[in-house]
Amino acid sequence: MTNNINITLKVWRQKNENAQGSFETYKADNISVDMSFLEMLDIVNEQLILADKDPIAFDNDCREGICGMCGCVVNGRAHGPEKATTLCQLHMRKFKDGDTIVIEPWRAKAFRVIQDLIVDRSPLDKIIQAGGYVSVNTGGGGEANQLRIPNELAEKAMDAAACIGCGACVAACPNASAMLFTSAKISQLALLPQGHPERAIRALGMLREHDACGFGNCSNERECEAACPKEITIVNIARLNREFIKAGFGSEVM
Amino acid sequence: MLDGKVPGGPLAEKWDKHRFELKLVNPANKRKFTIIVVGTGLAGGAAAASFGELGYNVKSFCIQDTPRRAHSIAAQGGINAAKNYTNDGDSVWRLFYDTIKGGDFRSREGNVFRLAQVSNNIIDQCVAQGVPFARDYSGGLANRSFGGAQVSRTFYARGQTGQQLLLGAYSALSRQIKAGKVKMFTRREMVEVVIVDGKARGIIVRNVTTGEIERHEADAVVLATGGYGNAFYLSTNAVACNVGAALKCYRKGAYFANPCFTQIHPTCIPVHGDYQSKLTLMSESLRNDGRVWVPKNAGDKRAAHEIPESERYYYLEERYPSFGNLVPRDVASRNAKDVCDKGLGVGPTGLAVYLDFTDAINRDGKDVVEKKYGNLFEMYERIVDDNPYEKPMMIYPASHYAMGGLWVDYDLMTNIPGLFATGECNFSDHGANRLGASALMQGLADGYFVIPYTIGGYLATSRLQKVTTDHAAFKEAENAAKENINKLMTINGNRTAENFHKELGLIVWDYCGMARTEEGLKGAIEKIKTLRDEFWQNVKVTGSEKEVNRSLESAIRVADYMEFAELMCTDALNRAESCGCHLRLESQTDDGEALRKDSEFSYVAAWEYSGYGKDPVLHKEALTFENVQLSQRSYK
Q1: Could you report the per-residue pLDDT of A72-87, keeping only the tens digit for each?
Q2: Backbone dihedral region of B511: left (phi > 0), alpha (psi from -120 to 50 degrees) or beta?
Q3: Which residue among A17, B49, B326, B354 is least enclosed by CB atoms within 10 Å?
């Protein structure tokens, strides 16, 4: 079952935000195809450390595809070639012996490069802070089952809520837009009755913040949907647009 | 004897009475207090948000790039609550009893009862936040039975309950950040706690992107830094999970309780090579339909389908006829290790057993199996590249959860005034074994519904003097942290910290895992000491401390584990009984089952630091049971 491959990596190295970055080439020999992509990078890093060199800086944490911390552009694609797969869940069996793999950070105006493959995704937090919640204090919820929510609505809300906030949608978008991310939260809370009292103020607040952070606009390229490891669909962006229009024309909060 | 300060009176009235007796902080005075919360998982995120809502100033710290990523996010199964929506006989008392019994009678009655009481508030809170729990076709919340419970009390959001609950807490936290009540510090690792006049008054953190060492002062410090499962190196924990923050508190005098209580989860994807960085948990619901087996003959290398029925050993079904494949986690784990130790293990490493769905597929059809477990099968195939519909899955136990943690009293305060510990990083509610779907419950109970009250009682009565970061204690703590980093940066040896961690993890796994012996533990302590000496002579850290430096971060954490692993083994050596997740080979019944020794070990073992490399001092908190009858578990 096990076999090993030899590959060449071209990795974006950049000391810090202001430094000039460039690609460095590394050989990764004898890589088991059962390794995950990040385990392969671990091996390369161990070799770099033993050779007195700086290890490649990359973000990662849970390594089971749910925390959203990892992510790089691999051969031009956010999270690499596999559909619906985070980088940590990509395995080396998807590559061939002799392949050259190009690894870059998420590139977007709103995401500054911190070091090597690590970027600053805090603008995504700012969008949530601008209204991605139901304003209820601890203890302020009523008896849970008093609120009946049709199963299919709850399921649709769950589809949207599955977003892991990794930023692949931004990296994949030619406009570096975070509309898919923003729409996922707006959809979840617009579908559920708990979110209704604040839906207008939420849509306006989050979209203003989105633009203020320097994310681009949506021009229906659908690249975000293709790159999303959790298969969040652009139906959510359509919902966002409806919420935004309703908020603009029909609401008292404008 | 240590006193857990559980209030008197009948069990069901303790918490209400205590809440009434706790002094309140005047609303206008709350803004004069600053609280530090370290960690943004369920416990920390919920606590920080709740403090902000109450009007306190909060400084929240996390190691990741955003507070939405803590490892609570990875919990799959669900969260328990005693709602009794299914009318199947559940109650606060039953949830309490199941949790105490599941913990093998090594937790406090008062704390566990409170946990069961507030479980219902948690569900109300999460629904109000917009957490998309699964619902039935009438629109009510759906429940399932989980982890062998006889009632359906588990609420869930697909296989991503932890994620959805964490995002609920994160949204509440985000609202307080926007409101200016919580100041968020991301990409910070706590490297020291600061004690002034015997009280916790601040922390020292390292900014992991710039390497800057920062001082932060407060009126109280709340740790919510998770568990230490990565002591085993391979575990289901995230890469950044570490014991550092808790260990720094231990070194400053906080007691560490029951460090040997760790949970080994039976259904993880097995190790396939020495490069492996983590193990992935497969939900244990798989054991509802999968049959566990190994070949009868050692060294049988035939493919699974070539081994005839007569040469298969369904060891759980044979050894435990009444529970079969559904024996509790510890029993399933121990037996898997046992058959593999006898050479019956399968797969390339021999460290795996089969979990076979053939019978379930033949009985119920592939569709039914797919509906129940489709996402898990897909996850398995992605990692292992085998199709579980055609070939049996391979599973093996892995370190999953730490029941031990910082010792806390009923108010969740450590023995250092002003230093609190919540969620997995305290020891309080799960005894020697944690039941499924109760980690999420405890994290949120502590964060939303316990500490917001108890911290008020502390702040209202402590007459705290103003402290600034110019205080000598901050300088001293900062210097200690810097010295540690300098030391690691200058050793310039020949082995990476990761490499040391792997060796350390193997020692802990072999001798302080599921089955332990006095001789093994004594040997392990010597091995750890030798390895630790080598670490401090021979670890290699490259790069600069002024940037993102994975080799330095890893070295800081491994240095902590080198010290902590010895404490785990010391505690395990002291506890000469089989209990919860662990079999002590010297303490077995005649037919080879775990034998608990209540007359000798019905206590919490809380360890006090007595200096680097010196033996810690044991303090005991007696466990008394007034409301439950102690019983030995039997699954035969």
Answers
A1: 999 999 999 999 999 9
A2: alpha
A3: A17
